[in-house]
Write a structure and sequence with these properties.
It is a single chain. This protein is mainly alpha-helical. It contains 10 helices and 6 strands, in the order ααααααααααββββββ. The longest helix has 28 residues. The N and C termini lie far apart (41 Å). The model has no long low-confidence stretch (mean pLDDT 89). One of its GO terms (biological process) is negative gravitropism.
Length: 247
């Protein structure tokens, strides 16, 4: 995340924030995968359920599959000004003021770590967003297998935020996605999110190959999407994808 903020939203700033999302999602996915292994989960079955069975099982592909699962959940609702947490319509009723408010929030939150944000704004949209996404990603069977109980889930459901290493790692990702979202809604035009569909042709102008067949081999097809891409005016942030060879 940039330490110094530009005077106005820009593609470069958005790209920098998206890079932070990618870094955080990789880290959290690696943590989830390590906990799955420690809990003796069937990793192959988990990967197949995410990818539809269209990938070989290696450490790299397993981590990318878990990251795909996490990012799919985290970016659901990104197109809405509150991730559908509230019924606000500020971006339609007062679009210019809403953009200014979003950028002001972005700048104010930038230097604070997630626990600080939650201690200051426990009832904020960020707190509700974090709780909602945690519940979506870490389902009860997963948490029970990892930690032997559902204490963290019960705390989150009651509006509290656990001070555990696992939840803290999740909050790093939650903050990165929330900051990207605040910045997106500060921009005109609003960045347009896109994902590469399974079986789609590989298009290097819109996609970056991060697994499967190397380097975006000509004729490769998308096995699964890892992180979404964005179109911002005439600029593109590429979707990260895993590829398979055309049969």
């Amino acid at each position: 995340m940039p330490s110094a903020v530009a005077a106005a939203p820009s593609f470069e700033l958005f790209e920098s924030c998206m890079n932070q999302v990618k870094h955080s999602s990789k880290s959290f996915a690696a943590l989830l995968l390590s906990l799955m292994r420690a809990a003796h989960w069937d990793i192959a079955a988990a990967v197949r359920s995410i990818t539809g069975g269209a990938t070989t099982l290696s450490t790299a592909s397993a981590r990318l599959a878990v990251e795909s699962y996490v990012c799919c959940k985290m970016f659901q609702g990104f197109e809405n000004e509150s991730f559908y947490i509230s019924g606000m319509l500020s971006c339609l009723l007062e679009p210019e003021k809403h953009r200014q408010d979003c950028f002001a929030q972005f700048k104010a939150m930038l230097s604070l770590d997630p626990p600080e944000l939650l201690s200051l704004l426990s009832e904020s949209l960020f707190g509700k967003f974090s709780a909602k996404k945690y519940m979506k990603i870490v389902h009860p069977k997963m948490e029970e297998a990892f930690f032997g109980g559902l204490e963290q889930r019960r705390m989150v459901a009651s509006g509290k935020h656990p001070k555990t290493e696992f939840y803290s790692e999740f909050l790093v990702l939650a903050k990165a996605v929330w900051m990207l979202h605040r910045l997106a809604f500060a921009m005109e035009p609003l960045p347009s999110q896109f994902r590469a569909s399974r079986g789609a042709e590989f298009h290097p102008e819109f996609m970056e190959s991060v697994g499967g067949i190397p380097g975006g081999v000509s004729g490769g097809l998308v096995s699964f999407s890892v992180t979404p891409g964005f179109k911002i005016g005439g600029f593109v942030i590429k979707a990260r994808v895993c590829l398979v060879s055309r049969k």
